[in-house]
């Protein structure tokens, strides 16, 4: 969130393009907050991208000439994206993923922990905490909702550091009583 993840992805993809490497960029369909077929950073840098519902679709769209695959908002593609990235990398492709590693409660956002583990290189980019100005790696939700993700609601979050992040309490599951011997 506001940390420059997408901008960093775009920067790396553009460098590959300057290097005359064929690149393809994908993003989950649910992230249509700015534009359907482009990856756009908060500062309006943009790249043409292919929206997909599932990680495997990358294989259907993959051009045999492609050398670099970029994936934005990778945390929304589910656990299968790990295998897909591994398969692409094993074919010799460079795979660059940008994603959010924690949800708004500060919990690891699957499948990011798995992706981070198998990646050769990991760069953590930080936003600036809106409360104290220190580097921020968490998203404070300022619009209450039971959903884990509020897509396209950029103003529902603000960047906070560990110290200033206030996790919302996890809703307690109502006690389930199952009385088999009810009379
Ligand atoms: Zn702070």
Task: Give a verbal description of the structure.
With 183 residues, this protein is α/β, with parallel strands linked by helices. It has a domain at 5-125: Rossmann fold, CATH 3.40.50. The protein has 4 helices and 10 strands. The protein has helices spanning 5-18, 57-61, 80-90, 112-118; strands at residues 23-28, 38-40, 46-48, 50-52, 68-71, 94-97, 127-128, 135-136, 138-141, 157-160. Strands 4-1-5-6 form a 4-stranded parallel beta sheet, sandwiched between helices. Strands 2-3 form a two-stranded antiparallel ribbon. It has a two-stranded antiparallel ribbon with strand order 7-8. β7 and β8 (135-136) form a beta hairpin. It is globular, with a radius of gyration of 19 Å. It starts with a helix and ends in a 23-residue tail after the last strand. The model is unreliable at 172-176 (pLDDT under 50). The structure holds zinc ion. Zinc ion binds at residues 129, 131-132, 134, 160-161, 163-164.
